[in-house]
Amino acid sequence: MTMFIKRHLLVLGFIFVAINAFSKHSPVTETRDSVVVDSITGQARKYKLTDNKVLKPVYWVYNYLANSNKLRSDKTYDGGFVFGPAYNINTGFAIGGGYSALYSFDKNDPTLQKSIVNGFFQASVKGIVAIGVEGHNFMKNDMHRFNYEFSFTHYPSAFWGIGYDTSLKNFYDNRMVSSKQLLLKLEGDFTWKLARNLYFGPKLDFLYSNLYKTEDVLPKGEENMYPNGLMSELLLLPDGSGKSQPGTQAATGIGFTLTYDSRDFATNAYKGHYINLQQLAFIPGLNKYGFLTTDLKYQTYAPLWKKCTLAFQVHGRFNYGNDVIPWIRLASTGNQGMGRGYFYGQYRDNNVAETQLELRQRLIWRLGVVAWAGAINIFNFDNFRWDHTLPTYGFGIRWEFKPRVNVRVDWGFTKTGNSIVFNIGEAF
After folding, report:
1. Cβ neighbours, 10 Å, residue 418
2. Which residues contact 74 (CB under 8 A, 6 or more apart)?
């Protein structure tokens, strides 16, 4: 599959070079000066037009890609679509795409950070279908901020159990629950400015999971060991009752978020700091299992040399207040741009501590490259061990689609495999 992707990327590269060369040297029946300005060089660019009906689609594609990152002086809202390939050892080959747009709540205030909305979709050969949208809004005078994320996913997934030892053993023994799952996620917060770069406000976090089909994958000799199914065995309640968590669950958290944010651009910072504290309560009655979640994140960005940024992130998420944490709310690998290369849910437990360091180098034109290394520990406080820390590292390619909004292709490596991911926006 890797060779398959490399061949297709090589073909796409030749096509792009050919289009670029053709557009520079072939006769054009008409040209006009564009009102757009390149977001990197600050230079204006001409559109290339033709009256040839056969060549018009080629020129349209070239102009669309070549000018997608230009700042339009005649527009207060600037959006566009892009798509590309992805590969994961568990999900197989996929086609993903997205929509990204920049806009301002006060076009007369050049100091106000641009708001952004990103939409995405993905479809894989193994049945994953995902669609969603996220947005970061900076309101007039930056006195209020509104963030949201909504997604719906059909997710042929796998579950290896809870805890490092259980997950790793089952992974190597080829013992797991293969499932089909519907996920609905809604998350948002609205904050008020308390002081310079400091914001506070309420937060809502809702997740619904419908595990509508499961199949046990077991090593030879264990076919009849789990009469109620392996999922029930892996989700046994700790009270000795012999009962298990349900596979289908919903969990709603209500709480607050406190944020310090001095980044120069929220989704692709070159400098600044970001600190975010979230405190959520999953209230009994509203939820089958009541518990609390504390989430703490710190990110910093620093320029090293020309067009190079060093980005660092550390993150912790802690679930507590009940002996039973819903399995869909357990801390997990492969979440929120952390642990790239690990399959989502490959390791699960009550808590996670993770960090990553990334070097981002902008190259020529609108291209850039990154390299990163990180570590994740999924744990329960009763059995935390340093040697359970999971490494992750990799590299990626960046292409600026909109001003300061990159399309990214990341190739992540782990101790159990690797994956290629296509997405819009930086991992952090």
Report:
1. 17
2. 35
What phi, psi does 63 have (nearest 5°)?
-65, -40
Domain-embedded: residue 132:
yes
Is residue 284 domain-resident? yes
Distance in angstroms (rounded) separating the CA atoms of residues 146 and 148 = 7
What per-residue string of b and e applies to 244-261 under the rule 16 or more CB within 10 Å gives b? bbebebebbbebebbbbb
Contact in structure between 422 and 406 (CB atoms under 8 Å) = no
Find where tokens 């912790």 sit: 316
Task: Confirm if 351 and 317 have CB atoms less than 8 A apart.
Answer: yes
Distance CA 219, CA 226 (A): 12
Domain count of the chain?
Answer: 1
Residue 140, φ and ψ in degrees, nearest 5:
-55, 135
How far is residue 238's CA from residue 41's CA, in Å, rounded to a whole number? 61
**DSSP assignment, residue 327?**
G
Whether 38 maps to a domain, the answer reads: no
In a domain, 192, yes or no: yes
Q: Which of 1-15, 32-46, 377-391 has the lowest mean pLDDT?
A: 1-15
Alpha-carbon separation of residue 275 from 90, 272, 296, 335 (angstroms): 33, 10, 8, 18
CATH code of the domain covering residue 236: 2.40.160.50
Q: What is the pLDDT of residue 124?
A: 82
Place 5 in a pLDDT band, splitting at 50, 70 and 90. very low
Structure tokens belonging to residue 125: 């050969």
Cβ contact 140:105 at 8 Å: yes
Q: Which domain holds residue 308?
A: 75-424
The pLDDT tens digits of the residues spanning 229-263 come to: 999 999 999 888 889 999 899 999 999 999 999 99
What is the C-alpha separation between 425 and 408, in angstroms, rounded?
7
**Residue found by looking up tokens 């969603």 in the block:** 132
In eight-state DSSP terms, residue 43 is -
Phi/psi for 388 (5° steps) reads -90, 5
β-bridge mates for residue 362, sequence order: 368
CA torsion angle for 307, 267, 9, 89 (degrees, to 10)? 130
Cross-strand pairs, 34: none
Cβ neighbourhood burial of 383 (10 Å; 0-12, 13-18, 19+): exposed
DSSP string, 89-123: TTTEEEEEEEEEEEE-S-TT-TTSPPEEEEEEEEE
Q: Which one-letter DSSP state was computed for residue 425? A: S
